[in-house]
Amino acid sequence: MNTIAERIADFLKEYPPFNNLTFNELSEIASSIRVIPLEKHQTLFQINDSLHECFYVVASGTINLSVIYDAEETLLNKCHQGDIFGLRPFFAKNNYMMTSKAREESIIYAIPIATFRPFVANNSLVLNFLLESFAATSRYASDKDNNGGKLISDNVFYPDQQSDIQYFQSLTYNNSPITTTAQTIIKDIAQLMTEETVNNVLVCENNLPIGIVTDRDMRSKVATGRYLITDTIDKIMDSPVITVVENVSLAEAQLLMLKHNVTHLCVTLDGTSQSVVKGIISEHDLIIAQASNPGVMIKEIKRALAPKDLKQIRERLTDLIQNAIYKNIPLYHVANIASEINLAIIKRSVELSILDLGSPPARFVWLSLGSQGRKEQLLYTDQDSMLVFEDVEANKYRDVKDYFIKLAKKTTATLEKVGYPLCPQNHMASNLQWCKSLSDWIKQYNSCMNTPGENSNDMSSIFFDYELVFGDDKLEEALGNVVLQNAKNNSLFFDYLGNEVLRYNAPLTFFKKFITEEDALNKNKFDIKSRALMPLIDSARLFALHFNLKGINNTYLRFKQLAIVDAKNEEIYLNCADAFITLSKFRTVEGLKNDDSGQYISIADMSKLDKEKLKAALAPMKELEELIKGKFKLTQFS
Q: What's this model's pTM, rounded to 2 decimal places?
């Protein structure tokens, strides 16, 4: 390998997605890379230029990517050393939709698509990176009319963000494709494609797919004169057609297109060419689906400038959750991804409030509580939050608190517009009692934990399950230390928490019948939140505090960790972990079906099998109750 290629390979191995390739692979790629020096303000490509046969990496300098909106150039992104750009020829066939221009003297590496494509087809990590980067940029380049042209710089994919959801993310595709037979005349197919405004036609024999014709075939084979418009379609069709099953995942479809170098996939009943055609998947379908990938969604959240933008993203998240439930993806995996998006929405809401009010007068931290704090929120549940600001001089306290109350009110109002209802008990940072200095919060925690009483129940069910959303982590750490210190050898506190868990109403009668609600609104429905989930949530918290499990708020993970630290009761904890996931799924399905929180389930509408599954999930609660009584030496309260 020559010296220049070796230096290029050494450079590339430090940056994604190239860090997912071996050095031998990088060396092979580097040997075909072209080095392009650009002077300041020199253009590499611009809007409507024909696509190049390569994409680019910034070796040094800065490249501006921009679009034209209302006759003005609008900056889309700044690409710095190691950033990739110009991915359109990799995934699309139309011309460039943005302009790349050197902001300063720069050196660019041009990587041939033909050379790089085989490494992408065999490496899903590289593929994911390229597609997410392209989807994030192309979405905003093509949708600029819908967002007022306010395109914010941020198209570089962050590798630490979740992208696993694309492995079960569903695809929306044409389920009524145009079909024809092999002996149809090319001219007739061209007219049909024009009339139906489609860019592809499937060629079938006895209702089975044998080939496909696309716009590209018409351009490259007919318009060039290689074939006559009076020839039959079988002369220009691509065959065999690549087929997939109906529920093919986004990632699988991406890999197949790259592997076979095709732009369309034929969906059949059993995924083979020997079964009935069900639809056609195009590259465009993949790009649209890719824009709903979690990594892309989080980038969109960072760009959002109004509640309506955040609301649209949250609605797309609901669709993803529903698809995941339908495909029977493990609920914990789904909840983990959903929680990151929910927290990103809350964080952006805080940021928008700061943009409106100006810089905060003191350090602070915004904490999400309850299901958000436990990273268990899948549905639209009400807001729970608290705000802690650093201690300030007495003469500044009022002004500082006034600022943060305004900040909290703006933020909770934004979140309400997004779709998160206000907490009916007013457990929100916009409440004077939930927006305090660090010292004031420490006093409240000390009081709650050392002299528990009537007002401690809210604290126990919410204040010990928090997640940092925005702000200074040292303030959060200070609160955590107070909790752990107060919990040590605090039998009074644990007596109180334990008895509160034992107070929950039983979910089943003595004869194993579901105990349902009697009020008119939810008559004959089962309260899965209060009678099933909350006892598990509160029990997991009780034992987590007792065993000093720091930094673990999620109920499922708490039970999993408890099985390790209290090994003699391992089976009980693991059964409770499984039960929590099962019960959460029942609630999520109910909520998605009725577009509500899913708290109340109609037992009458459940199948016999689902009723038995629900009862089985409630079984570990009795053993857990006995464990609490024995561990904390408690008796059942009436």
A: 0.61
